[in-house]
Design a protein that fits this description.
The complex is a heterodimer of chains A (about 110) and B (about 450). Chain A contains 3 helices and 6 strands. With about 110 residues, chain A is an alpha+beta fold. In chain B, the strands form 4 sheets. Chain B has a 10-stranded mixed sheet, with helices on both faces. Chain B is built from 10 helices and 20 strands. Classes of the chains: A alpha+beta (about 110), B alpha+beta (about 450). The interface between A and B is large, with 43 and 53 residues.
C-alpha cells in the first residue's frame, strides 16, 4: 500500500451513472463530475472489481470501455439481469437501479 | 431541420408532445414507443384481441397532436404500430376524420413481422445458441429490426404520418435526415453522426432531465414538467439538442452523456440496420443554457444481418404480497416468508420456481450480495412466479392471502395479480429474407 494518506468516499460523491438493458445484458455508464477524478476512478473501478463486487448478480463477464475525453467509463455486464426484462421475477426487471449499486462502491481519494 | 421527440417509451407523457407540436416549429415529431417489454405486450394484446396489438395510447396521442401538426406543417413518425401496424394506421385515419383533417395521409411500413420465417432450427444467439425448438414454449411472434431503407419509401409517399412496427429506434430519426439532406445510404460518417442524434432523441425526456434527478447531487429544475427534446440538425449531421424555454427540466453535458451510452455496449460499434455507428470520439459542447452541440460521431459499414426479437408464450406471471409494519416488522416479515417457503415447497411444481422479496429490506438488490439490514419498521413480503398453469398460480396467491389470518401478527395489505406474459430472445436474419412494403391510407 502507498504511504500517502487517503480518504474513502462512495463513488456517488464524485460520479454519476445510468443503467440500460438489452436482453440479459446490463450496461452502466459512469461519469466523473470533475475531470480531475477520472484517472482515479479508472484506476480503481476496473471490470474485475465490478464483477467481484456482485458475483451472484453478474453471472457473465464484465467488459469496460473508456471514453477518456468525456471522462466516462462504460461497463457491460453479461448475464446480469436474471434472464432479462421479460424473464426476470425481480421487481426491477430492467436493472434500472443497478447504476446505484455501482455508485455505492468505495473509492480511495488522496487527502488534499 | 428541426425534429422533436413526442415519446421515448410506451407510456410516456402526452402533454409535452402537444407542447412541441404546437410551439416548436418542427419538421418532424417522432414517437418512439417500442422496447423488448412493450413489443412482447403488443403480441400479448393481439393474442387476446386480434384488433389490438398497437400502442394503447396511439389514439390519445394522435388526438393531441394531429391538429397542431397540420397547422404547422409538421409530419409525424412513429413505431406505435408495435405488433399490429395496419390496425394502428386505421386508428390514425379514424382520429384524423374525427378531427376533420380531410386528406390526411398515413403510410404504414409493413414487413417487420417475420414470425413465418422462424423455424425449429432458428438459433437464439442470446440464449447460449439454443434453437427455437429447445425453448419449450409456443412461439408468440418474431419481429425484425427494420431500418431507414424500409422507412424511406413510406416517407416518399408524402405521408403526413408514417407508422411502423419494429424498426431500430434511431432509424425513426435518421430516415427524415437522410431524406431532408439527400445523404447517400452508404455515407457511413453522416449516418453514424445522424444515428447518434437519433439515439440521443429516442428516449424522450431521458436527455432533458428525466431518469436523471438524484436530489442533492443532480437536481433537475421543475421535474414535474420536463419538456421533450428538440434537435436542430444541420446538413453535416451536427445537431444542437435543446428544449422549449417554457418547459421544465434541462439539457446539459451530463444529461447528454448519460443518454449517449444508454443501452450502448461498445461505443465504437453501435449496431443498427443502417450503420455501425461510432460514438467514441463524439464531441459535446454546451453553447448556452439548455443547448448542447453534438458532433464528431462517425460510422462504418452497416451489419450484414438484421436482429430479430423472438417472442414466446411466457404463460402467466403471478405476483402477490402482504405487509408488516411497526415494532418487530422485519422479524414478522421474515417469519411470513419462512412459512410461505415451507408451504410452497409442499405444492407440486412450485419448488425452485418462485421468488420471494422483502420490500423494505432488500427487494431490488436482493441478489447483489449486499449486507441486509436486520430491522425495519415497514416490510412487504412479495412473491412472484411464472407458470403456464393458472391453477398453480392461483394456489400461490391463495396461500399468500391466507397469511392474513394464518400468518404472523399484524399482517395486512394483501394484493395479488395474474398477468399474461411473453418471454423474448434474439436471433439474426439475412437482409434479403426481409421484404418490407408500404401501405397508404387517406382520411
Amino acid at each position: 500500500m502507498s504511504t500517502q494518506s487517503t480518504r474513502t468516499v462512495r463513488l456517488h460523491e464524485i460520479a454519476h451513472a445510468r443503467a440500460g438493458d438489452k436482453g440479459n445484458t446490463s450496461n452502466i455508464s459512469v461519469w466523473a463530475y470533475d475531470p480531475g477524478d477520472y484517472l482515479l476512478i479508472k484506476e480503481q473501478l476496473t471490470a474485475e472489481r465490478i464483477k467481484a463486487a456482485f458475483p451472484d448478480l453478474i453471472q457473465g463477464d464484465v467488459v469496460r470501455y473508456e471514453l477518456e475525453h468525456l471522462h466516462g467509463l462504460n461497463f457491460v455486464l453479461g448475464e446480469a439481469l436474471e434472464g432479462g426484462v421479460n424473464t426476470s421475477l425481480g421487481l426491477d426487471s430492467h436493472g434500472k437501479s443497478w447504476s446505484f449499486l455501482v455508485l455505492g462502491l468505495e473509492i480511495e481519494l488522496p487527502e488534499n | 431541420m428541426r425534429m422533436g421527440s413526442g415519446a421515448g417509451f410506451s407510456s410516456d407523457r402526452l402533454g409535452p408532445a402537444v407542447d412541441l407540436a404546437e410551439k416548436a416549429a418542427l419538421d418532424w415529431l417522432v414517437f418512439e414507443t417500442i422496447g423488448e417489454r412493450t413489443l412482447a405486450f403488443g403480441h400479448r394484446d393481439r393474442q387476446l384481441n386480434p384488433e389490438r396489438g398497437y400502442n394503447p395510447q396511439l389514439a390519445a396521442r394522435m388526438r393531441g397532436v394531429l391538429g397542431h401538426c397540420r397547422a404547422n406543417g409538421t409530419r409525424v413518425m412513429t413505431n406505435m404500430g408495435v405488433a399490429h401496424v395496419e390496425a394502428a394506421a386505421e386508428v390514425v385515419i379514424q382520429v384524423a376524420r374525427e378531427l376533420g383533417l380531410k386528406g390526411l395521409k398515413v403510410a404504414a411500413v409493413l414487413g417487420d413481422d417475420v414470425t413465418d420465417q422462424m423455424t425449429d432450427d432458428t438459433v437464439l444467439f442470446d440464449y447460449d445458441g439454443r434453437k427455437i425448438s429447445e425453448v419449450g414454449r409456443p412461439l408468440a411472434g418474431a419481429n425484425v429490426y427494420l431500418g431507414i431503407d424500409a422507412i424511406l419509401p413510406a416517407m416518399q409517399t408524402g405521408a403526413d404520418v408514417v407508422i411502423t412496427g419494429r424498426v431500430a429506434d434511431p432509424s425513426l430519426f435518421l430516415a427524415p435526415m437522410v431524406e431532408q439532406f439527400g445523404w447517400a445510404t452508404d455515407d457511413w460518417q453522416r449516418l453514424g453522426q445522424g444515428t447518434l442524434v437519433g439515439h440521443l432523441m429516442e428516449c424522450g425526456m431521458q436527455i432533458t432531465g428525466g431518469y436523471f434527478a438524484d436530489p442533492g447531487r443532480k437536481d433537475v429544475p421543475r421535474p414535474a414538467d420536463c419538456g421533450y427534446p428538440i434537435a436542430e440538425i444541420e446538413e453535416n449531421g451536427q445537431a444542437v439538442i435543446t428544449k422549449l424555454d417554457a418547459a421544465g427540466g434541462m439539457v446539459n453535458i451530463a444529461t447528454v452523456k448519460e443518454q449517449m451510452l444508454y443501452e450502448v455496449h461498445d461505443p465504437t460499434r453501435y449496431l443498427t440496420p443502417d450503420v455501425t455507428a461510432d460514438f467514441s470520439r463524439a464531441q459535446l459542447t454546451e453553447t448556452e443554457k439548455d443547448r448542447v452541440r453534438v458532433s464528431h460521431a462517425s460510422g462504418t459499414e452497416r451489419p450484414r444481418q438484421l436482429k430479430v426479437t423472438v417472442g414466446f408464450d411466457g404463460g402467466l406471471l403471478g405476483e402477490g404480497g402482504v405487509s408488516y409494519a411497526g415494532i418487530n416488522a422485519a422479524a414478522r416479515a421474515r417469519l411470513a416468508r419462512d412459512i410461505l417457503v415451507e408451504r410452497f415447497d409442499r405444492i407440486d411444481g412450485m419448488a425452485g420456481n418462485y421468488r420471494i422479496d422483502l420490500i423494505g429490506l432488500n427487494s431490488l438488490h436482493a441478489t447483489a450480495g449486499l449486507d441486509v439490514p436486520e430491522t425495519a419498521d415497514d416490510v412487504r413480503v412479495r412473491v412472484a412466479m411464472r407458470s403456464m398453469d393458472r391453477v398453480l398460480i392461483e394456489m400461490m396467491l391463495w396461500e399468500i392471502e391466507a397469511m392474513l389470518c394464518c400468518g404472523p401478527a399484524g399482517g395486512g395489505g394483501y394484493r395479488g395479480q395474474i398477468t399474461p406474459g411473453v418471454v423474448t430472445h434474439s436471433a439474426m436474419i439475412d437482409r434479403d429474407a426481409v421484404a418490407p412494403t408500404v401501405k397508404v391510407y387517406e382520411a
